Task: inverse folding
């Protein structure tokens, strides 16, 4: 597989799904890294741990400067178009995040 194959496939599927852009940014394979980092950041995971998880250099601020992208703060959040569990996907995600974790 060529190095760009993942990115090309992801962009193809995003286009087919009708969401080639999220918050006016083209969907790329880096969107996956940004999503994971953004979720960890929202849960107050320390930068050092996010650097390790994202394979960024220790002490790097890349996770905070380039890969912290809370979607939905701009325009065109694709979750607004998805119906799930009787409402929007955004509402389902918010409800799931509001529930305390069970252990």
Result:
């Amino acid at each position: 597989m060529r190095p760009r194959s993942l990115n090309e496939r992801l962009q193809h599927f995003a286009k087919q799904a009708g969401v080639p852009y999220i918050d006016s940014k083209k969907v790329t394979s880096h969107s996956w890294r940004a999503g994971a980092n953004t979720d960890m950041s929202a849960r107050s995971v320390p930068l050092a741990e996010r650097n390790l998880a994202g394979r960024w250099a220790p002490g790097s601020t890349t996770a905070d400067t380039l890969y912290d992208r809370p979607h939905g703060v701009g325009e065109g959040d694709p979750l607004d178009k998805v119906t799930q569990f009787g409402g929007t996907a955004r509402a389902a995600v918010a409800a799931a995040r509001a529930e305390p974790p069970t252990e």
